[in-house]
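Run folding on both entries below.
>entry_1
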Amino acid sequence: MIDHRERLGRIAASLSMLLLVAVPSAQAVVVNRILATIDGQPLTLFELQRFTQSTPPMARTAEPQAMLDALLTSRLIELEIEKKGIVVSDAEIDNYINQIRQQNQITEEQLSQALAAQGLTREAYRVQIRQELERAQLINREIRGKVNVTPEEVERYYEAHREEYAKDPEVTISHIVLRVTEDAPPDEVERVEQRAQEIHAELDRGKDFAETARQYSEDPAAESGGSLGTFRVGTMLEALDEAARDLDVGEYSEPVRSSVGFHIVRLDARSAESHTPLDEVSDQIREKLYNEALEARYTRWLSEDLRQRHHVEMLE
């Protein structure tokens, strides 16, 4: 089960991929056009171009408006981080990087090589990690506490999706088996089958099944009177499944052949089709509903709440 804080961290990490912010240049630049303002502060065409170039190709789009929206969102998040006084320490960054190394089983040198292959210095990588952790903390504050799943919601989902929790019928069986390999010569197969028919005839004359299994069955289950236990229909050897399907409780089958040999199967019990109880799947359902609510709340926060807290004006 995924920890909620871990999930929020993943959301923040994916957000960072979409909203990588280029480090402002210390040099003066010519601003040729203002595209939007946030709380009176301009966003220029030059900044948009720089932001687009710094965005990984997988998160980049050819639509200028989409990239401008991403840039706006990135700046709004920066403002919220600053407003709430969120600060990530160097120790937190070190711990995060160490976790990444451990998870990927790589050394410091291998990490540096991997970063170099992506055109990143260690310093730039730490800046990126800091941004991810800041955003994760912000999202955790803004979203996690506002998402809740009640027991009533869990029960409603269970009742509406009962077919998802249907359990196959189960059968409890015993057997008597005489072993013969699949590639055995025909005369040996015939001899074993004939012996199985003779044992079946003894059962027809009233001999106790468990006693007969202990006497003749060539299987470890013979010691327990041939009892194999309880199985879901469809999970046993095909020959045993087919044999048990047509039996009433207490009946035994004609000898049937499998890859193991010849079996005489007795049906000891059969359960009706049922459903996994709610208390066994409630945690699973709650996690599913929580994740769905979390995604919806995150999307609303990203597209609506952030914009409502600041004055955003589009100039195109």
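>entry_2
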Amino acid sequence: MKIFLLNSIGRNKFGGGEKWVISAAKGLQDAGHTVYLGCRSNSILATRARECGISVRYFNVLSDFSPYNILKLTHFFKKEKIDVVLSKNREFGVAGTAGYLADTPLVVARHGLPLRRKISKHKFLLKIFADGIIVNAASTKELYVKNKWFPEEFITVIYNGVDLDTTCDPMPFETMYPGKKIIVSVGRLSAQKGFSYLIDAAAILKHKRDDFIIIVLGDGKLRESLMQRAKSVGVDKMIQFSGFVKSVGPYLKGCDIFTLPSLYEGLSNAAIEAMAFGRPAILTDVNGSREIVTNEVNGIIVPPRDANSLANAINELLSDEEKRITFGKNAWSYVQDVFSIDIMVHKLEAYIENNVRAKRH
């Protein structure tokens, strides 16, 4: 089958959605399908895809409606006889229209995050052009069904899989920061990820202990303002913004705790990856977090926008090594059972094949 995935993320951006696209494309390709990835030229996503042997085509889709890109995609779909178009939500207006004009057998939207803005417009486009929606969290499906945006059978949950080299060497934090415990957080430096609350939690913890360092991996437009906030509350030596790194594995393997103080989330790839390295996770109680962490079993769930609760949870795990180890072992086991890359690819392939067969009949 010929499968086209579209993700036109900015050239210098690379997050959980882009990791999913790479994993899905490579997995489907390894399963014997012909896979193309549409993305921006000179982007991190394009570079990573080529490194994995994925065939890349350049489409810079910057808006929900672009006659030029619609015509360009329609021509490509017809020429290559594409069987399946799978697009993330932001590009779906263009991808869905092109799929319709090219009479593509299956057009699917994937939502890594629930719809939050321009909901009526997205619902309209999806109901006209989509054959279905794939979401990565049951909580997202429940939201859509509860609000009667889409029928239950229109939405399929396929959890993200993690494909990590867990044999990598851990960062030598014990040498870099003697006597310190390391807390790692990963994500774009945007309001969504709630890093301002992590800074405030560090300020609260500073009055209780000084044996920790927080390392934030990721870049974004809020970097300067977050660094300034950390300095203003006196924790700029305790929290480091290390920017984008190509491989987070050594950081996750070397740290003691993972945390992500998101204000909203689909299903956090970074949290799943940390748990795959046997690290306990502290997540905010948003969207799919409880599908990853069972509170006080493999991590801790705290309310969003609550620096005090976040500080208390971090302090609890920093103070109890036995609990950290137990939670970490439970986290590793859960990821192996639920979030393996093989399970994800198998479910995605079955979904595609079953729906293409049904439409052709």
